[in-house]
Amino acid sequence: MKKWLKKIAIVLVVILVGMQFIPTDVNRQEEIPKTDIRYVYDVARNVLNILQTSCYDCHSNNTNYPWYSQVQPIRLMMDHHVEEGMKELNFSEFGNYSERRKRNKLRAISEQIEKGKMPLPSYLWLHSDAKLSNEEKKILMEFISSLKN
Fold first, then answer.
1. Residue 10 lies in a domain
2. Which of 143, 132, 144, 56 is nearest to 106 (CA)?
3. Which DSSP letter does residue 132 get?
4. pTM
5. Phi and psi dihedrals of 90, rounded to 5?
6. E strand or H helix that includes residue 88
7. Listed range (6-15, 19-28, 66-75, 86-95) with the worst mean pLDDT
8. How many structural domains compose the chain?
9. Dmax of the chain from CA atoms?
């Protein structure tokens, strides 16, 4: 029985080491595109700071990669999470959305904030600074409300 455990452990170590050589793309743009929400609307500095701290890692073309993102399979999971987040909402591409889609996204953002669903709890485990305070929620809700008028 011990021989099997040893063989399984060796195979797992080889797989984990081999995974470190899987190439990964980096979700970073050198320049902020003109389609970024900050150029589509008049976004106050405090609102933009909140968005960048709590939303942009998963919902923009500019992810901030922490040190642990260099380790596989964590990076693969992180890349999948970012890809899904950008598919749902991308602040860098907000200007490319139709007016209807913009309104729907703004409404969805409000709902997610009100229900406390964003940022995701799993993201907050390692990014406690991204947790929205009541004041930050209020600021974002007022900003979104101002766009609806």
1. no
2. 144
3. P
4. 0.75
5. -130, 105
6. helix 74-88
7. 19-28
8. 1
9. 70
The DSSP symbol for 25 reads -
The structure tokens listed for 33 are: 């595109």
Is 85 part of any domain? yes
pLDDT in tens, 22-79: 666 665 667 888 999 999 999 999 999 999 998 898 899 987 777 666 667 666 777 7
Element containing residue 122 per DSSP (H, E): helix 121-124
Contacts of 44 (CB under 8 A, 6+ apart): 143
Domain with 133, as residue range(s), is 26-148
Amino acid at 140: L
Taking the C-alpha atoms of residue 78 and residue 69, their distance in angstroms, rounded to an integer, is 7
| Cα–Cα distance, 35 to 48 (Å, whole number) | 15
